[in-house]
Design brief:
6 helices
């Protein structure tokens, strides 16, 4: 599977998507499109959905509509380079960590290396920055919600519609049917990651 970045004619508009055959997909997209589509980048991967999501989310402020983004060819090429780094550096470590999350602890805690201490410090700093950004994002989202008031949203910007969802109330179920709850409850071993401060 491939993730592709296609330029729409000579414009600063690109389409980011995934396909088994990029040339066939380009041909499909060309039908009815007055602009020629030029391939800027293709990335072959077994994780096409993850890669497409990475690009879409990391470029969300540039989204025009659907899978179309306002990017210059240079910006689009840089996005492809960032995706390759993500695939080479982040994805393998995440996969290994997920496997280790299922493993049993075999030894006591060991002394940290200088590199591990530096990673710990950097993670604490990134978490600080993330917290501040999350607060800022929440403030901006709340500002839009207040602007929306009781309407369904702001045309082309945001929606805030009322809908009904069903949620399982496990606490009430446990109280009402303790035997049934016990019958279908299973112990699950898991590892919990916590950052420690010295």
């Amino acid at each position: 599977m491939y993730v592709y970045i296609l330029q729409n004619g000579d414009t600063d508009v690109v389409k980011i998507g995934k396909a088994l055959d990029v040339e066939q997909r380009r041909g499909q997209l060309t039908t009815g499109n007055p602009e020629a589509l030029r391939v800027i980048d293709t990335i072959e991967t077994d994780d096409a959905g993850l890669c497409e999501k990475f690009l879409h989310r990391s470029l969300q402020s540039k989204r025009l509509r659907g899978e179309f983004f306002g990017l210059t060819p240079a910006q689009a090429k840089e996005a492809g380079r960032r995706l390759r780094r993500f695939l080479a550096e982040d994805v393998p470590v995440e996969k290994e960590a997920k496997l280790l999350a299922k493993a049993e602890c075999e030894t006591l805690a060991r002394p940290a290396t200088e590199r591990e201490s530096a990673v710990h410090r950097e993670l604490l700093e990134k978490n600080e920055a993330k917290y501040v950004l999350e607060i800022e994002c929440a403030r901006l989202a709340n500002e839009l919600k207040v602007s929306i008031g009781t309407s369904e949203g702001l045309d082309g910007l945001a929606s805030w519609r009322t809908h009904t969802v069903s949620k399982f109330d496990e606490s009430s179920f446990r109280q009402e049917h303790p035997d049934l709850h016990a019958t279908f409850s299973r112990p699950v071993r898991q590892r919990t990651f916590r950052l420690l401060w010295k």
